[in-house]
Specification:
Main location: membrane
Helix content: over 70%
CATH topology of one domain: Helix Hairpins
InterPro entries: HAMP_dom, MCPsignal_dom
Structural class: mainly alpha
CATH architecture of one domain: Orthogonal Bundle
Shape: rod-shaped
Mean pLDDT: 73
Oligomer: single chain
Organism: Streptohalobacillus salinus
Low-confidence stretches: 21-44
Keywords: Cell membrane, Membrane, Transducer, Transmembrane, Transmembrane helix
GO cellular component, one term: plasma membrane
């Protein structure tokens, strides 16, 4: 009895010390987690707090902004080219207008001289018709004068034209039918004024042609600038976009590989893996936090299970020792049954002691049952936490699928840019067709000018300039076509780069899925452990029932001893029965020890840091 009491007190002390150590380890882990959370809260906004989808989204937005700026600059240059082309067209119209005006003045002079010679009303009517047309052309030309030199020449033309009209109405018409000398005098004066006016118009046309040439030169310069700007801006946009994609991909891959490495170690039972130090709120940060939390919970639970298992093993050893002691006592009772015949009082005393011992034994069995229930509850907690970890892994797989979809959308948008470049190529083809038609019209105009002879020379010059302009447009179209093809090639390069990034994301998703499978294996192993713990509890229940039967037998022995010394033989038989029951108790305690050892073997499959190790 004293041996049983000492064993019970020793087990109680060991149990209390281990519980204190376990609580201290848990408090340290909680304190460290709280400290880590406080550090996280003090961190300022950084790239770690942006989701992976938004990281790639920022790259795409940056490329889009750069391309938009490039498009705006090139568009402004194209508008300048269009303005210059409009100026060229207007200058060409004014040159044609001056040519026609010179021809009309020459024709009006011819009509005036014919009227001087013949005095025919038809020639006078023709003069007035030419005068009306000249006035109309002069009015239109005056509205498009652009500088002081042109204005000065225009004023001279107006003055000379007015002088011609005054000469016709005041002098020539008053001297119709005069002598030949007078008619020749007026004819020479009118011809001289007409030639002077034509000369002024020629100077004015030369100025207009110089302005047109300057506008063409400005258009060529704007075109060269547009080409250089387009190439430089597209190259810079593509280089910046590629560098940003590489930086983000490398950043994500680096931190995901660290998470995968840690989860692989945990999946193999190695809980000595270094804690993931990732201060961020993105998907990687949440995944890292979940894995760190799961690791801490697993270490805590395994330590608790280990402590409980050691307690079960220790108490099983005590139970086995007690069973052996009881067995030895019952054998001694069987030997001394013959001596008990001399006195029933001594026999009753021994029986009372034996009843008290069995009562203590029953109390110890009940305590072991309570410990087994604690082990079972801890096993269920471990199983629930493992299932929660598996759920987090499934959420991580879902996040990686979302990232994969975002990268695919980016590939589609770049493909859409390639389609827009193809539309630009079609528009360039349309412009080329228009330039070809302009060239053909210029050729027809040149043919018509050749047919017109001297009067069509100025028109021929204009037609030749239009033809040259159409050829320049054709050359520019060729350059633009090359640029658009370069854009299409670069778009395909970006699409290929995004496709490679998509493959890397899919590889990361596969790695996380494999980690999830390993978490599933851990879950199944813990479920098996829970089953074994339940088996131990069932054995303890059976053992408690057996101890109650032994206690009843001992009480029966005591009753028989008190009744009569004549029941010595019956008491001896009861002692033998008690010895058999103790053998069963010893066998049950041995089974309990074996179960505790198997539980410890399962726990030793996990590796834990020395500072957390309580196994």
């Amino acid at each position: 009895m004293k041996l049983l009491r000492k064993g019970k007190e020793k087990v109680s002390k060991v149990k209390k010390e281990k519980i204190k150590k376990s609580r201290g380890g848990i408090n340290k882990i909680k304190h460290r987690d709280a400290k880590g959370k406080a550090t996280k809260n003090n961190k300022k906004f950084s790239l770690h707090n942006i989701s992976i989808g938004w990281k790639y989204g920022i790259v795409i937005i940056t490329i889009f902004i750069l391309l938009s700026i490039s498009t705006a600059l090139v568009s402004q240059t194209l508008f300048d080219i269009q303005d210059n082309m409009d100026t060229v067209e207007a200058q060409g119209d004014r040159a044609v207008l001056t040519t026609e005006l010179s021809a009309q003045i020459q024709s009006k002079g011819l009509s005036a001289m014919n009227f001087i010679q013949f005095g025919n009303e038809t020639h006078r009517s023709d003069f007035e018709t030419k005068k009306a047309r000249i006035d109309e052309l002069l009015e239109f030309l005056g509205e498009n004068i652009q500088n002081e030199n042109q204005q000065s020449l225009y004023n001279e033309v107006l003055a000379n034209n007015q002088a011609l009209d005054d000469m016709f109405y005041n002098d020539i018409m008053e001297n119709v039918g005069a002598t030949e000398d007078i008619r020749r005098l007026y004819s020479n004066r009118f011809s001289s004024s007409t030639n002077t006016t034509s000369l002024y118009l020629e100077y004015l046309r030369d100025m207009i042609i110089e302005d047109r040439d300057q506008a063409v030169a400005d258009a060529d310069q704007s075109q060269a600038f547009a080409m250089t700007m387009l190439l430089a801006s597209m190259l810079i946009s593509l280089i910046i976009g590629l560098v940003l994609v590489l930086i983000i991909s490398r950043y994500v891959s680096k931190h995901l590989n660290r998470v995968v490495k840690t989860s692989d170690q945990i999946a193999t039972g190695d809980l000595t893996a270094e804690t993931i130090n990732y201060q961020g709120k993105d998907e990687i940060g949440r995944l890292s936090s979940s894995i760190n939390t799961m690791k801490a919970q697993l270490i805590t639970m395994i330590n608790q299970i280990s402590e409980t298992s050691n307690q079960v093993r220790s108490e099983s050893e005590q139970l086995n020792q007690s069973a052996n002691d009881v067995k030895t006592g019952t054998e001694q009772i069987a030997i001394t049954m013959e001596e008990l015949a001399t006195g029933t009082e001594s026999q009753a005393t021994y029986a009372g002691d034996l009843a008290e011992t069995m009562k203590a034994f029953a109390d110890r069995i009940n305590a072991i049952g309570a410990s087994s229930e604690t082990i079972n509850d801890s096993s269920r907690v471990v199983l629930e936490e493992t299932q929660a970890g598996n759920t987090y892994m499934e959420k991580s797989i879902s996040q990686m699928t979302t990232i994969d979809q975002i990268v695919k959308d980016a590939v589609k948008k770049v493909s859409g840019l390639d389609e827009q470049s193809k539309q630009i190529t079609k528009l360039v083809g349309v412009i080329k067709d228009i330039a070809d038609q302009t060239n053909l019209l210029a050729l027809n105009a040149a043919i018509e000018a050749a047919r017109a002879g001297e009067h069509g020379k100025g028109f021929a010059v204009v037609a030749d300039e239009v033809r040259k302009l159409a050829e320049q447009v054709n050359d520019s179209i060729g350059d633009i076509t090359g640029i658009v093809q370069t854009i299409q090639q670069e778009s395909r390069s970006v699409s290929d780069a995004l496709s490679k990034g998509n493959q890397e994301v899919e590889q990361g998703k596969d790695d996380i899925e494999r980690t999830g499978v390993r978490f599933k294996s851990i879950e199944e192993a813990i479920a098996t452990m829970t089953t074994h713990v339940q088996t131990v509890m069932d054995g303890l229940v059976t053992l408690a029932a057996d101890s109650e039967q032994v206690n009843g037998s001992v009480q029966e022995i005591a009753s028989i001893s008190e009744e009569s010394a004549a029941g010595v033989e019956e008491t001896s038989a009861s002692a033998e029965e008690a010895s058999t029951s103790m053998e069963e108790v010893a066998s049950g305690s041995q089974m309990l020890m074996d179960s505790a050892n198997r539980l410890n073997e399962l726990i030793r499959q996990f590796k834990i840091d020395e500072k957390h190790n309580k196994i």
